[in-house]
Amino acid sequence: HLVSSTPLLQAARANGYCIGAFNVHTLEMLQAVVEAAEELEAPLILQTTVGTVKHLGPDYIVAAAQTAAKRAGIPIALHLDHCTDFNLVVRCIREGYTSVMIDASMHPFDENVRQTIEVVKVAKAAGVNIEAELGKVGGVEDDISVADEDAKLADPEECVKFVELTGVPTLAPAIGTAHGIYKGEPKIAFDRLEQIYKLVDVPLVLHGGSGIPEEQVKRCVSLGMGKMNVATELRIAFSDAIKAVFNNNPDENDPRKYMVPAKEAVKALAKEKMIMTGCVGKA
Ligand code: 13P
Ligand code: ZN
Ligand code: NA
């Protein structure tokens, strides 16, 4: 069965590694990251954005993830990524998600606290992990778009207050990474991350994992990031592989053929990220 990501992330924090959390949109993508995690004996967080929940249906997603969890010899959690809608959070918990993000980072601090407390109440009662965001992660993720000039680093003192007030078990502090592929290199505020890690005792989440150079990912992990979200790079790998098939053979019409290299590309990329974040062999 699917497990809550809270104990997985607590173990990651306690032992200084970071778990890969992968946004999937199709059955093949889900199978690809599950196979990658199994082969590397890594704990796994599968995640879907609100857009994917609407596209596939939460019941289909939960059924596929549960099947993966039943078959796989590794712990798997299913996480709802960047949800701004309390009702959808509740629906996904009812369907069987084992982790949810309430993203009220676009609101003032007090409103973010208020919305997060509401979710913490229902999710904790259901044994489900909760993630919230402080500061604002830049870039585009589904319907949430934050211009570079509006991106905002998390304030360490606010992080302390936020965790105290909400009881949230995992926190995503914005530290300068962004959703999507970077123009140039991300400017990560490592000093800020270090401060937050020292002040706050819950596991921390790194958003915007696509495009962060390996050295910077490793530095984030060494400074306490316990979960890294990867979305855009997986979509690109999946789509590029399909494009290559059709470029070479425009008449291809069998999904069982053209999906194979796409799945392999996602699997290889997921493995790369798991090796980078140090969660290999931690299942
Ligand atoms: P990327 O699209 O940059 O990988 O960001 C993923 C993410 O943070 C999902 O919440
Ligand atoms: Zn994100
Ligand atoms: Na990114």
From TrEMBL:
Q: Where is the active site?
A: D81
Q: Does the keyword rRNA-binding apply?
A: no
Write down what this protein is called.
Tagatose-bisphosphate aldolase subunit KbaY
UniProt: dihydroxyacetone phosphate binding residues: G180, G208, G209, S210, N229, V230, A231, T232
Q: Which Pfam families match?
A: F_bP_aldolase
InterPro entries according to UniProt? Aldolase_TIM, Class_II_FBP_aldolase, FBA_II
Cofactor(s) needed for function = Zn(2+)
Q: Give the residues the record marks as binding Zn(2+) 2.
A: D103, E133
Give the top-rank taxon of the lineage listed in the UniProt record for this protein. Answer: Bacteria
Instruction: Please name the GO terms that the record assigns under molecular function.
Output: aldehyde-lyase activity; zinc ion binding
Where along the chain is Zn(2+) 1 bound?
A: H82, H179, H207
List UniProt keywords, sorted A-Z: Metal-binding, Zinc
| Cofactor, how bound (note) | Binds 2 Zn(2+) ions per subunit. One is catalytic and the other provides a structural contribution.
- Xref: CDD domains: TBP_aldolase_IIB
